[in-house]
Amino acid sequence: MVLRVMSKMKWVLALGVGVVGGWAIRSLSDTPEGAGVKLLEIGIKTKDRVGRWAAVEGERLEDMLAEARSRVEPEFGGTKGAAKESKHSAKEAAKESKHSAKEAAKESKRSAKEAPKESKHGARGET
Hints:
There is one protein chain. The chain is mainly alpha-helical. Helices cover 94% and strands 0% of the residues. It is built from three helices and no strands. The protein has helices spanning 2-28, 32-76, 80-126. The longest helix has 47 residues, at 80-126. The protein is elongated, with a radius of gyration of 33 Å. The N and C termini lie far apart (110 Å).
C-alpha cells in the first residue's frame, strides 16, 4: 500500500516538474525560434565562461610548474630549463625573421606592380 502511494507521488512530482520546466522555457520567449535563440545564447555565454576559466587555470598550472622546476633545478644542477629557453628564443627569432622576410617580399611585389602603373600614367600625361 505504501509502495503504491510512493509510486503515484513520483509520477505526480515528475508531472509537476515537467509542467513547471515547460512553463519556464516557454516564458523565456514567445516563439519556438526565440527559445532556440535564447538557448544558443546561453550556450555561447557558457562556452565563453568555460574558455576564460580554462585559460586562467592553465596559467595557474604553468606558474605552478615553473615554480616547481625552479625549485628542482638548483637541487640537481639541471640545465634543461636554460636549454629549452634558448631553444624557444631561437625558434621565436627564426619565426620573426621568416615573417619579416615574407613582409619584405610582399612589399617588393607591391612596389614592382605599382612601378609599371606609374610609368603608364606618366606616358599618358606626356602625349
